């Protein structure tokens, strides 16, 4: 999950109070939401609608997630959420990184494997291959 190439996409947004647990830190499950939000905004930045894909019979689903938690986020922190994407077989592999904006502390990093169900069958998705091609990490 180490990244050497620049990130393909980055957004910034705040932690909301309701995302924190009794310890005053962001509940671990919310990092999944942050990463999903980042992927959806990445799609929107490419003029691709997640709902529009579904309407055309293309469903992008999470096949696997591996998260490493590093430093906690707290209420009122601003988050910088970044991603890179690469292609491995049928999978789109997203490498995520979440940092606290104030001090650039790494809070979480993850690998999220996405597959496409096209018209009810696990398939390659040429539309997303073309959309993501300019962003695919180069294999070293």
How is the secondary structure organized here?
Elements: E1 9-14, H1 30-45, H2 50-55, E2 58-69, E3 78-88, E4 91-100, E5 106-118, E6 121-123, H3 126-132
Antiparallel strand pairs: 1-3, 2-5, 3-4, 4-5, 5-6
Describe the structure in your own words.
- By secondary structure, the protein is an alpha+beta fold.
- Helices cover 21% and strands 39% of the residues.
- β5 (106-118) and β6 (121-123) form a beta hairpin.
- The relative contact order is 0.23.
- The mean pLDDT is 95.
* CATH topology assignment: Thiol Ester Dehydrase, Chain A
- Rounded to the nearest angstrom, the radius of gyration is 16 Å
Run of helices and strands: EHHEEEEEH
- Please count the beta strands (DSSP E, at least 2 residues each): 6
Coarse structural class: alpha+beta
The CATH superfamily is identified as Hotdog Thioesterase
Low-confidence stretches: none
Number of domains: 1
Helices, by number, come to 3
Please state roughly what percent of the residues sit in beta strands, choosing from under 5%, 5-15%, 15-25%, 25-35%, 35-45% or over 45%.
35-45%
Helix content class? 10-25%
Can you tell me the CATH architecture?
Roll
**Mean pLDDT figure:** 95
Biggest sheet character: 6 strands, antiparallel
What is the approximate shape? globular
CATH class: Alpha Beta
Compute the separation of the termini in Å: 13 Å
């Amino acid at each position: 999950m180490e990244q050497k190439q620049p990130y393909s996409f980055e957004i910034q947004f705040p932690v909301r109070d309701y995302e924190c647990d009794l310890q005053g830190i962001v509940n671990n499950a919310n990092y999944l939401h942050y990463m999903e939000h980042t992927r959806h905004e990445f799609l929107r930045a490419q003029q691709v609608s997640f709902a529009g894909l579904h309407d055309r019979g293309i469903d992008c689903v999470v096949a696997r997630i591996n998260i490493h938690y590093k430093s906690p986020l707290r209420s009122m922190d601003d988050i910088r959420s970044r991603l890179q994407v690469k292609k491995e077989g049928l999978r789109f592999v997203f490498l995520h990184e979440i940092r606290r904006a104030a001090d650039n502390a790494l809070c979480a990093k993850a690998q999220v494997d996405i597959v496409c169900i096209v018209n009810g069958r696990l398939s390659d998705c040429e539309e997303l291959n073309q959309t993501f091609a300019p962003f695919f990490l180069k294999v070293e």
